[in-house]
Design a protein that fits this description.
The relative contact order is 0.16. The chain has a six-stranded mixed β-sheet with strand order 3-4-5-6-7-8, sandwiched between helices. α2 (48-55) runs parallel beside α10 (244-252) and α8 (192-213) packs parallel to α9 (229-236). It is built from 15 helices and eleven strands. The chain is an alpha/beta fold and 354 residues long. The termini are close together.
Length: 354
């Protein structure tokens, strides 16, 4: 029996690699002779640059920067030679990520992407002109204003010599009912009144961006990623936008890996309706559907809906077995044990069918 194990990270608990190892342990506890292939994933969010770096030969660079509320932090990005180009691999979440700010300190109205701009400028100063930017997991809704401020007044000239590809973990537009403010700002601590104000700000930002660049990118898929940073890169840098999960799956030659698989196990920290809009689990499901391979998705929490239940997964399962606090559930050791134990139950069912 061949099982492909390909989770995203369980944000705030386990990296994608740690999650894959926990699932792998569960598989072999029940089926010791099972052939497993671990392919840790990222979809443009937290950990994307590290996953791409693990597939390519890359150098890690750690620098001093700030998080979304201005606290001094260290953050890591990667540099590599990709397709003959000196390339910097940077995650917005590495400096401006939501998990870097405790819930009681989150301030969506003032949160800034300036720290990500510091990372980009560091790479520029080192001579890198090709950038792959992972957009997911931000604590911001500033449409990249902080990044632009960090890069300085020469951004217009800079944009003409920089090649930027953005990897989006969602396909939402910049503003409106499905936009950055209404869809994601509540997760970042925004009140209903702040959501309305942020959506208005994003509309005003877009009017200015169109006036300055001549590009109307607000409704482009992924424009609303990372609190509108996707729209900023598309408008001001004419960035190429790709689905983060599709790009990572292509790097793994994922279709070949799953074409002869008997089972695929994926997962991420939270599975809900947003999972269907470009997240890792949905990317995996789409590829496996080509070969009729069953896919089971595991989530730290699962918000069931008719849409999710009808999406094509063989099963979508939460991994928390008993009542516990969110803090307990997100403890790395607990999350790892829960993943392993849930996988054991899955493998018992599948072993009985062989």
């Amino acid at each position: 029996m061949k099982t492909v194990i390909c989770p995203d990270s369980f944000k705030g608990s386990l990296t994608a690699t740690e999650a894959a190892e926990a699932i792998n342990e569960g598989v072999h506890a029940v089926c010791p002779d099972c052939d497993t292939l671990m392919l840790p994933l990222a979809d443009g969010g937290e950990g994307t640059s590290a996953i791409i770096a693990s597939i390519n030969v890359a150098t890690a660079r750690t620098i001093q920067t700030i998080n979304a509320i201005g606290d001094n932090i260290t953050a890591t990005y990667y540099t590599s030679d990709i397709n003959g180009k000196k390339t910097a691999l940077i995650d917005v979440a590495a400096a401006s990520g939501l998990t870097l700010v405790s819930p009681e300190k989150r301030d969506i109205m003032n949160a800034t992407s300036f720290g990500t701009g510091i990372m980009i400028k560091d790479a520029l100063d080192r001579g890198f002109r090709n950038f792959i930017i992972g957009l997911g997991g931000s604590a911001t809704c500033d449409a990249g204003a902080g990044i632009m401020k960090a890069l300085g007044p020469d951004i217009a000239n800079m944009a003409s010599v920089i090649d930027v590809t953005v990897l989006c973990d969602v396909d939402n537009p910049l503003f409106g009912p499905e936009g950055a403010a209404y869809t994601f700002a509540p997760q970042k601590g925004a009140s209903p009144q702040q959501v309305i104000a942020l959506d208005r700000m994003l509309r005003q930002w877009n009017e200015e961006a169109v006036r300055r660049t001549g590009r109307e990118m607000a409704m482009s898929p992924g424009a609303g990623a990372a609190g509108g940073i996707g729209a900023m890169f598309m408008a001001y840098f004419n960035a190429k936008s790709l689905s983060g999960i599709e790009a990572v799956l292509d790097l793994y030659d994922f279709d070949k890996a799953v074409s002869d698989a008997d089972l695929v196990i994926t997962g991420e920290g939270r599975i809900d309706s947003q999972t269907l809009h470009g997240k890792a689990c949905m990317g995996v499901l789409g590829r496996c559907g080509r070969y009729g391979v069953p896919v089971i998705a595991l989530g730290g929490s699962v918000e069931y809906s008719d849409t999710l239940n009808g999406s094509g997964f063989t099963a979508v399962l939460p991994i928390i077995p008993s009542t516990m606090t969110l803090r307990q559930a997100m403890t790395p050791s607990t999350a790892r044990q829960n993943l392993t134990e849930t996988t054991k139950q899955i493998m018992k069912i599948f072993r009985s069918r062989l």
